[in-house]
Here is the input.
Amino acid sequence: MIDINNPSGEKVSEKIEKSEEKVKRSLAKTISWRIIGTLDTLVLSWLITGEATMAVTIASVEFASKMVLYFFHERAWNNIKWGK
Here is the structure.
């Protein structure tokens, strides 16, 4: 590893950084993305059905199911080294 801040070339201790996300960060991303996605589903369901009650029901079910799916999807991708 070449350190541009150490032009003499002396060996410096290497700091290995992990590009791994913590569970809290994955959870925060899961919840924030799910809120955006659910609002989209709510509006689209309301436009398609014309019924606010039906739109809220659809959005509620979708919120819970997709939040769980996204969380595990995010954690699985955290274990994949490709592109890091």
